[in-house]
Amino acid sequence: MKIQALTESIGAMVEDVVLSDLSDAQFALLYQAFLQHKVLFFRDQGLTVDEHLALGKRFGELEAAHPFFPHLEEDNRVVVIETARGNPPGKSFWHTDMTWQSIPPKCSILHAQHLPQQGGDTIWCDMAAVWTELSEAEQESVQDKQAVHALHAFASSRYDDINEQGESSVSKRSEDFPPLLRPMVQPHPETQQSVLFINEQFTRAIVGMSEQESDAQLERLFSKARQTQHQVRFQWQENSVAIWDNRITQHFAVTDYGDEPRRLHRVTVQGDAEMAAQPFHSNASQA
């Protein structure tokens, strides 16, 4: 197995390995690389659905079906991320997956099925490196703060069905996933690295600040994730695979391919109890 780092802090290309036939020793090496590099990339991995699921299970228990995303009929734990003619992708945001869920996922495994002729890259950002780069004053300003996370970003998206009465499926489903409170900075459960754990898609407000102050502070912090020095960009090919640590990264889908057909399958692994969120009470949102 050959593991080549792509940047100083995030991303590695892994070669000379077959993901559907990993020995225990190979998986142990792969797992350490996963913790070190935060996102791993592979080429030419013709995974079947069962092999994709089995690979995910080596990282932990799998997440149940996503409440909004489409999935395979044969197994609803396999999310389908697809663009088709007449159905272009929606607006893309930097995000950490499912931080609106009490325990966010540990990792995801994305397998490319078919792709546009050009475009459609994905970018990942190392949020531990972003935290380290903040000035001492910036770190102190958020060190003990909490932020509200919610699935509001799905409202009016391509995943929101509006019925004849004008009712939103996202609003209805939101009743099962009320807003949550998370520390803005928290340790990675395994490496103990400090992570700036916010994202522009699901982080809504900072507790103890006015709306104007919160929006301004969050935008300053979100902008750090958009800086390229802590990013790695992956150009997909058919049968490419990406495995990323959701506890320490954000990612962004580059939607520069119009409605050209693009399809990827995603399996997601359950997260760590140490990262469980607290319930949010709306009277706590303002100073």
Description:
The termini are far apart. The longest helix is centred in the last third of the chain and has 15 residues, at 211-225. With 287 residues, the chain is of the alpha+beta class. It has six helices and 16 strands. The model has no long low-confidence stretch (mean pLDDT 91). Helices cover 21% and strands 25% of the residues. The protein has helices at residues 24-37, 49-59, 127-133, 136-142, 169-174, 211-225, and strands spanning 2-5, 12-15, 39-42, 79-83, 107-114, 122-126, 146-149, 180-183, 185-187, 194-196, 203-206, 231-234, 241-245, 249-253, 262-269, 278-279. GO terms for molecular function: metal ion binding; taurine dioxygenase activity. It holds the Pfam family TauD. Residues 3-268 form the TauD/TfdA-like domain.
Give a brief outline of the structure.
Helices cover 21% and strands 25% of the residues. It has 287 residues and is of the alpha+beta class. α1 (24-37) links the parallel β2 and β3 (39-42).
Q: Ends: how far apart?
A: 53 Å
Secondary-structure-based class equals alpha+beta
Q: Determine the number of helices (DSSP H or I, runs of at least 4 residues).
A: 6
Judging by the overall fold, what is the CATH architecture? Answer: 4-Layer Sandwich
**Cα radius of gyration in angstroms:** 19 Å
Q: What's the overall geometry?
A: globular
The total tally of domains equals 1
Number of beta-strand segments: 16
CATH topology label: Double-stranded beta-helix
Sheet with most strands: 7 strands, mixed
Q: Mean pLDDT, as a whole number?
A: 91
CATH class: Alpha Beta
Binned strand content: 25-35%
Major sheet: arrangement of strands: 1-2-3-13-5-15-4
InterPro entries: AtsK-like, TauD-like_sf, TauD/TfdA-like
GO molecular function: metal ion binding; taurine dioxygenase activity
Family: Belongs to the TfdA dioxygenase family.
Keywords: Dioxygenase, Iron, Metal-binding, Oxidoreductase
